[in-house]
Structures are given as structure tokens and as C-alpha cells.
Amino acid sequence: MQEKICDIRSDATGFNALAALSEKAKALLFEKVDLDFQDCTFFEANMAAPFYAVLTKYYEGMNVVTPTNIRSDIRTILQKNRFLCELGFCELHDSNQTTLPFKRFKLTSGEQFSDYLDQYMHDRGIPKMSDGLAKKFRQSLFEIFQNATQHSQSEQGIFVCGQFFPKQHRLDFTIADAGIGIRENVRRFWKNEKISSCQAITWALQGANTTRQNQPGGLGLKLIKDFLSLNRGKLLIVSRYGFYKFSASGESCRKLKDDFPGTCVNIELNTNDTNRYTLKSELTSSDIF
Amino acid sequence: MREKVIIRVIDTIGSNLCIASEDGQKVFDKTVPLLQTGKHVVISFDGVSMLISLFLNVAIGQLYGQFSEEEIRDQLEVTGLAGEDMEILQRVVENAKRYYTNPEKYDKVWATLEGEDEE
């Protein structure tokens, strides 16, 4: 059987397409599936992470997935970022060094994720950022990665991928899982099966809300929003039917047509940012406690 | 003068990455008995290369569930954090104080909320 792949961008259309592709996997068992890229003229490289979350749904049914008819420019970038290596293609050298390659991590791999960032965030095509900006960006990525390890219950792990777009001064980094989604966690916490995906995302983003029992928490996403607001960057959270986006100009959540299998968070960093993030704070323990 | 005990975070968790809640729990578990016996505890973050709020919620925020603000202010000290990380700690502490002031869920409306139909 054949499934057509259209353009995949980090937007609602791209995620609707991925969610629809995931829906089609639900009824499939032991099939040979050709993913036909004939109509795909653009594939944002960082979207390899949520794309892989969708593929895991095909693999759950023991289906064999083969990409076909990929345009050479798209094939090149997805070989450079190693995504297509997961599907039997060879790796291509990333001479511009603008990719943070696709990688799968187990839920217990926080230290390996740190090694990955050390390896790919330094001395490559990714622009030299101020120490403060680079630290804030890494902290944001860790908050998201660790959130996924804590809450996703993704048996297949966590999938990451990043891409620097030099002309737009933009660095997109995407962390996806194939887990139960924010909605399921919030529904269980409130014992309310009627909470929608957007309502669950909204709840998770409110100040100190967390589904952890008897422990304060839930600050991570708030800190990321505060940071991206200053940076003039963007945050995208897609979880099950919810598509949430945030930028300095506002925030919104809309319902996807189909069920995205898990959660995907995309941080878009403005690499032209000249704000200072390193603070010579005068705060002491006694001021804080 | 009260005895001062230093908890070196990197020795306690065996890493310079303060990112995992399990590691935050190790620091919390080490701190609690010391505070209970009236010691002055210094949590030293010297040598830490990465710190996130998730870790601090568990390591320090949780203390507000067992000790009063006065006890913590009197007995606990934190060293080795950069200015911007002290600001994260401040947010974590404010959050924890709010949480333990009202550990019952903030907004019960969520228990009965009905959203759009989803499968």
C-alpha cells in the first residue's frame, strides 16, 4: 500500500498531515507501506522528530515502511541529518554543519542528551551565541527533554532533531515522543476524561501546574515562555489533538483534525538576539528563602 | 555557633548535571535529616554545569512541605549558583511556598470541565 506525503513544515498544516498519517497506521498489521514523497516539495529538517513519532505507530503493527520518490534536495538534507539512515539510507556529510542530527534517546538518557548538545552545538555552522543565550537555550531544551522523560511514557523513547536556518537567523529544535500526551496526564490527574487536548496544554502552561503528586513543579514551560518572549523566538507544543503556539505577539491553541501520537515541542530561537542573559545577581540565600 | 554541614551536589548525585528529578530527590533526602537535627546546611552547587527548575523543585522546593519558611531561612544556605540560576531558584521557592500554602488543587473547576469531543 502507499501513503502520500505532502509538504511538512513546523505549522498546523504539517502537523495535521502527520496526525492523519498516524491515523492510517491504526488499522495496519504486517503491511508493506510505501511513503510516497512525490508531492513533498519541502520538508523542514527538524520535523524529522515528530515524523519518527508517527513512524513508530507503523512499526507497532510490524509494518515495513519504505520512503519512495524523494526529491534529491529533500533526500540530501534528511541524509545529512541522519533521519533517513533510520530508513536504510546512507549518511551524507553535513558540510555546512547546520543540522543537529536526528537521534533517538531512551527515557533515562539525560546525560547522553547533554553529550549530544555538547557535540553538536559547538564549533559548527550554528552561530556563536553569547554564553548567556546559549545557556538559556540549553536549559530550555533540558526542561523539555526531562518533561518528556517524566511524563510521556513513550516506550519508543524520545526523538530529537534541530536545524539552523542561517538566512532567517533561526534555530529550530524539536523534541518529540510517542507517548500518552499531555491530555492523558491531565485527565488522570483530575480524574476527568472530558478534558480536551487544548485545555490540557493550557493547564500545563499555567504557572505552577503539574501532574506530579504532592510536589511543587510545573515551572519549566513558564520559564521557557519568558525566555522566548525576550528572545523574540517561538514555542510550539503539539500534543494529541492540541496545536499550541506562542510568540511575543501572542498565543493560541487549536484542534487538529486527527490524533498526533504523543507530544512534540519545537523551540524556535532567534539567533540574532543581543539581550544579555548572564546576570550578576545580588540575590543571596536569605533573599530567596 | 551551630554546626555547618556542606552538601556538595555533584558528589551527592555523581554528576555535574542537575536535570533529573531522581537526582533532586537524592539532595532532598540528604538535606532533610540534617535540617531536622538543627544543623545549618549549605547546599553547594560548585562544579555544576547545568541546572533546571525540575531538579530544584524536588531538591529544594519540596523542603517547604516539611519545614517552615522560618526554619529554612534560618538553617539553609545555597552556594555556587550563577546569578541567573539564583533567579530560577527564586522562582522555584516562590512557587513552592504558593503550592504548600494551598496544596489542595488550585482550581477545582478542572475536575468537571468538559472540552471538545476527542476520541
Number of helices of chain A: 9
Task: Summarize the helix and strand pattern of chain B as letters.
Answer: EHEHEEHHEH
Oligomeric state as shown: heterodimer
Number of DSSP helical runs of chain B: 5
Give the neighbour order of strands across the main sheet of chain A: 4-5-6-10-7-8-9
Strand order of the largest sheet of chain B: 1-3-5
Number of separate strands of chain A: 10
Beginning-to-end CA distance, first to last residue of chain A: 62 Å
Kindly state the percentage of residues in helix of chain B: 40-55%
The sequence of SSEs of chain A as H and E is EHEHEHEHHEEHHHEEEEH
Q: How can the largest sheet of chain B be summarized?
A: 3 strands, parallel
When the domains of chain A are counted, the total is 1
The level of helicity of chain A is 25-40%
Query: What structural class do the secondary elements of chain A suggest?
Result: alpha+beta
The mean pLDDT of chain A is: 90
CATH topology of chain A: Heat Shock Protein 90
Largest sheet of chain A: 7 strands, antiparallel
Topology at a glance:
The complex is a heterodimer of chains A (289) and B (119).
Chain A: E1 2-4, H1 12-25, E2 32-36, H2 48-60, E3 64-68, H3 72-80, E4 99-105, H4 110-121, H5 131-151, E5 158-165, E6 170-177, H6 181-190, H7 197-205, H8 220-231, E7 234-239, E8 242-247, E9 250-255, E10 263-270, H9 285-288
Parallel strand pairs in A: 1-2, 2-3
Antiparallel strand pairs in A: 4-5, 5-6, 6-10, 7-8, 7-10, 8-9
Chain B: E1 4-8, H1 9-13, E2 17-18, H2 21-36, E3 40-44, E4 50-51, H3 53-59, H4 69-75, E5 76-79, H5 83-101
Parallel strand pairs in B: 1-3, 2-4, 3-5
